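Hi R.,

As promised, here are both runs. First protein below:
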Amino acid sequence: MIARSLVAALALAAVSFATSANAQDVAAGEKSFNKCRACHQVGETAKNTVGPVLNGLFGRKSGTIEGYNYTDANKNSGITWDDAVFAEYIKDPKAKIPGTKMAFAGIKKEDEIKDLTAFLKQYGADGKKK
């Protein structure tokens, strides 16, 4: 009986830890997004500014946000954004898409990229959190 209780308690603790770790990842991603805010917006009131809106980024083809003036490099990149492509891009945008006008030094830390990805994935194409 004690062994069952211990197993149940450990399982509950593991679930609680995973849930809080995910929440921390999103919070850390929001903090990381501060590096992006000068050019990009997310959320229900987001608008294109220096860079395009990032709502609904994952699963979207590069260069397709209405009303944003993309470079031919972005429009013709053939990229559909997913975790791996975004991770490669955000490390060095100009290396991934030569000719992009995105002037950003990049984010090199894997954990920070994962946190930023978790934050961005919250937003559907309509800007609402999923």
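And here is the second one, sequence first, then its structure tokens:
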Amino acid sequence: MTMLDTSATMQTMGAHSLTRRERVVLGELAEDVTLEEIATRLFVTRNTVKSQVRSVYRKIGVSTRAEAVAWAESHGIR
């Protein structure tokens, strides 16, 4: 399996492996808000949101917020 195949597999499996909270955070990323504002909305710290965002990115195989939002929209999370 090549690196590209691994990435494609992760993106396909990503939607199923996200926790409920990670799905909420991913949905919030689509809004024009900062991580601090997301944290306030979710009653957690900014560091918690940063950790959850990193976990989401890893699980769905992306590295930017724009890619994560595009992925979420294409998988019906939003």
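A quick note on the second one: The CA atoms of residues 35 and 50 lie 7 Å apart. Let me know what you think.

Best,
J.
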